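User: Second chain of the day. Same drill as before.
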Amino acid sequence: MIDVDNFNPLNRFLLKKDQQEQIVEGEEDLLTDSKVVPIKPPRLRSSPLPQLSVSQLLLIPIALSGIYFYAIARDRYVTRSDFVIRKAEESDTNVAGAGLASLLGRGNQLSLEDARFLKTYLQSPQVLADLDRTYDLDQAYAQKGLDRFAGMKPGLSKEKRLNYFKKQVSVNLDEISGAIVLRTIGLDPKASLNLNRFMLAKSEQFVNRLNQDISQKQLGFAESELGRARGNLNQAKNRLLAYQDSNTVIDPKGEAELAGQTISKLQEKLVELRVELATLKRQFKDPTEPEVAVVADQVRELEQQIQKERRSLVSSKGRDLNRKAADMLKLESEVNFATDSYKLALTSVEKARIESKRQQKFMALLSAPQLPEDPQNDWRSKGFFTVLASCAVGFSLTKFIFGMQASHRQ
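Assistant: Same format as last time:
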């Protein structure tokens, strides 16, 4: 065995080179001795159908779409009508600021809101139900001929019928004129015209019902307050009448004043008699003299009468006019307050009625619907070019995917 570590570096390099040459020669001998049979790839049977490229395959949907849109598809007829929704009156403030409001587009903003509300209403299931009661929608939009994409299929569900109905009605706002544009689509001229007229009638009903809602909301509270004020007034009057009937008194304050005047007169008479009595006492030394006794009796009786009148005026066992006057004053104050409240409620109702009329809206027809004579054909070109664009995108994606696969194989 050769000790390689004892060789110098040059000897070690020559020895390693000889060993590598021997290994290569051994491998060549093995390849020469073995018989290698090359494997031939299997032959594929040629298909009897012609081989089509991707571009040729894309021509098939393009051709079919062209045949459908320009040869098979049924005509669509569009009927248009224009109208505006405006308030019946405007306040002085709004009239003064009409120029600024027009500059800021306030009118168009209100029309845009009306158009949104109206579009939501006209495309609602309630309108479709009303249409079914007055118009045979299934017959007017039934499928006919070779076109199986236009019209409604028989036996559609409510949701699908509603979706199809929504596609036939378009409500938009003309930003320039501020008018609401209503378009209806039909498979024949009469169907389109009848649908547009029906939608105009429903639009007017919507505006009228909106006015009724405004009136009811504004007048409802005012009228309820008026009814409450009227009831309070009637109750106050009934309490006053009942008190007068139960106490057999109409005006205790007036009666008390009259009683006070009577007492005042009695007091004046008493003063005169006392003066006369004093004079008689100076004339007659004896107080038992008949002249003095008569006047003294009159003074005593008059004093008793005054005390009796006073007790009758304020005593509960008498006429009790002071308490009755206080009660009557309270009841009359309630009647006066109820009367003032009733007057204010009447004023509020009148103001609410005027305000509701001012805020009411009306619908003005600008362009009446006309029977269309020519079908609308721009949708054909739109549909065809949409298919064409889709095919172009699909072709580009397919070519990109095949290119990526080829690059990975390489």
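The mean pLDDT is 75.

User: Great, on to the next one.
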